[in-house]
Every structure is written in C-alpha cells, then in structure tokens.
Amino acid sequence: MSKLESLFLFVVVIATVAFAFLLLPMCQYLVRPCSDGTKMSFGCCGRFTSAEIISFALSFCLVCVWVMTGHWLLMDALGMGLCVAFIAFVRLPSLKVSTLLLTGLLIYDVFWVFFSSYIFNANVMVKVATRPADNPVGAMARRLHLGGIMKEAPKLSLPGKLVFPSTHNAGHFSMLGLGDIVMPGLLLCFVLRYDAYKRAQLISAEAGLPPPVSNFSKVTYFHCSLIGYFLGLLTATVSSEFFRAAQPALLYLVPFTLLPLLLMAYMKGDLRRMWSEPFIASGSLPSKLIGV
Q: How far apart are CA 111 and CA 59, in angstroms?
C-alpha cells in the first residue's frame, strides 16, 4: 500500500468516526423505543450500543458514497461532522490561549492568501484548496484489474472544506475552510462554558435565588460572540463576491468575534479572570458546572 493510499485510508476512518459522532444523537432518539441500551461485544474492538452501531454503519455508507461520487453535499456533511467532533473534544482553557491561537492563525491565513504569491509566484493557499485530489480507489481498481465504474472514480475535493455553488458563476463553488469554523467555534465553546460557570456563581447559595442584575449583565458572552461570528462570516462572503478573489475568512471572523468579546469582558469586569484562570474550582459550585 502506497503512502497516498495509507493517508486516504486514514482520512476515511477519521471521517467515518466523526460523522458517526454527529449521527449518534439522532440514532439514539430513533432506537430508544425499541432498545434497552444493552451493549454488544465486538471482541477487541470493545462494546457498543445498537445506536452506536447504526450511526457507524450509516456513516460508513455515506463515506463510501462520497468516495465513489465525490459529490459536494456529501463532502459538506463529512466536513460538518469533523467540525462538530473537534469542537466537542477540544477545549480552550482561557481567553489568553484563545486570543493567541486566533491571532496566530489570522496572521498565518493572511500571509498565505495575500503574500505567498510574492515569494512562491503562486497563491499557495488557493492552489492547495482548489486542486482536486486523485481518488486512490481508481488506482486500486486498476491494480486489481476491476472493470466498470471503479476505474473512473472521480477526483475528490481535498483537503476538507465546505463548498457552496456560486450564485454568479455556474459550475464554480465558494469555499469555507474547516479551520474557519473550528477555531472560532472553540472560542464560542469557551465563552459558553464561562457563561454557565458565571451563572452558577451568581446564584445565591443561601436563598437559592439569583441576585438582581442589570439588562447589560443579562447579555451573555456566547450571544455576543455568536452575533460577531455571523457578521464576520457575512462580511467575508460579501468581500469575496465584491473583490472577485479569495479572502481569508479569519481576517473578518477573528476581529468580529474576539474584539467585542474583549470589550464586553472589560466592561463587565471579567477580563482579568477570563484571561488567565477562568474556571477556578469553588467548594460551593458543582464540579459538573465547571466542566460544561
């Protein structure tokens, strides 16, 4: 097996597991009336519930169809599965780490989109994102002397990204990298955890009632960042259509999400805590609230 085929097999496995993770809640809801949650043993692979088996089977079938057809809708579905799985398992510990990470990725994104052509005589980011990848299924079919459609396996849209048909150019697609979803998504996940942590702190341990707060205090950091992400994504889309050129989405997403969050945290007096150690365990707070 060549390195390309090994890498392709790894991508297929990761995509299958990630999309199975995305389908699992739906499968659990559907099989709940006819299943008691008993786990079935698969030897060294472990024990799995019927919902987990069904979600994995559906995900594997979807990945196989994507490999054989290369359809952009299936690529988007698998990409969303990867984003959801990554955001669910990775957590940012503080606002300082979030700021440094997003700022570094912003500089990286801007350099490769706007300045790489001056050094490498080509826009490296656009070239890598738009160049279709050879489908190893075709190579394996030729090696095994399999006829039919297997020899004509379509090229795949790799690396992973979300693509949408362009409204102006027929046959062309607008693209959004998975990193443009995952990295701001990690920030949104962080502020959502902090909102839950702060809400638990505001509840009076003696009376069990929250103290009176102003209307400004009722605005959560999550809503602020979510609105900022929407406006940043909208600005990136409009800029791409206006300039008719590739735009680094993080150039718009990072300022629209991070700057309002920093300003809001400063005005509320939470900036110092959010910056360094936002989730200091307290004896009066349940541990499950800290790990939201």
A: 36
Orientation of helix 179-202 relative to helix 221-243, angle to 10°: 160
Query: Is the separation of the CB atoms in 163 and 174 below 8 Å?
Result: yes
pTM beyond 0.85: no
195 given a catalytic annotation: no
pLDDT score recorded for residue 101: 93
The secondary structure of 91-139, three-state, reads CCCCHHHHHHHHHHHHHHHHHHHHHHHHHHCCCHHHHHHHCCECCHHHH
Distance CA 142, CA 23 (A): 34
Q: Exactly one of 76, 109, 134, 195 is catalytic; which is it?
A: 109
**Hey, what are 195's tokens?**
């909102």
Choice among 36, 134, 180, 270 that is catalytic: 180
Q: Is 36 a catalytic residue?
A: no
| Residue 283: pLDDT band with limits 50, 70, 90 | very low
CA distance 176 to 133: 17
- Summarised one tens digit per residue, pLDDT across range 226-257 is 999 999 999 988 888 787 777 888 999 999 99
Give the pLDDT band of residue 2 (cuts 50, 70, 90).
low
DSSP assignment letter at 160: -
- Phi first, then psi, for residue 23 (nearest 5°) are -80, -15
